[in-house]
């Protein structure tokens, strides 16, 4: 099981049709499982992974 690093949670909202019908819906975060260099698995959002890789690139 991967350790969850991010604090992101699903967003809840209403889905509205042209006839103004209401239905509850959820937008779930884009969580990905990645493996670090030391072998541990963590769950992070795709945006956080991109930010982390950009910072690694700038440091090198």
Low-confidence stretches: none
Overall strand count: 5
How many distinct folded domains?
1
Shape: elongated
Question: Separation of termini?
Answer: 31 Å
What share of the residues lie within helices?
A: 10-25%
Give the name of the CATH superfamily. Answer: Ribosomal protein L28/L24
Under CATH at level 1, the class stands as Mainly Beta
Mean pLDDT: 92
The name of the CATH topology is: Ribosomal Protein L24e, Chain: T
Structural class: alpha+beta
**What's the gyration radius in Å?**
17 Å
Q: At CATH's second level, what is the architecture?
A: Roll
Strand arrangement, largest sheet? 1-5-4
- Main sheet overview: 3 strands, mixed
Strand content: 35-45%
Give a written overview of the molecule.
By secondary structure, the protein is α+β, with helices and mostly antiparallel strands. Helix content is 23%, strand content 40%. It has a single domain, classed as Ribosomal protein L28/L24 (Ribosomal Protein L24e, Chain: T). Strand 4 and strand 5 form a beta hairpin. The relative contact order is 0.24. The model has no long low-confidence stretch (mean pLDDT 92).
Chain-wise SSE layout:
Elements: E1 3-4, E2 11-16, E3 22-27, E4 31-35, E5 41-45, H1 46-59
Parallel strand pairs: 1-5
Antiparallel strand pairs: 2-3, 4-5
Keywords:
23% helix, Ribosomal Protein L24e, Chain: T, 60 residues, three-stranded mixed beta sheet, 1 helix, two-stranded antiparallel ribbon
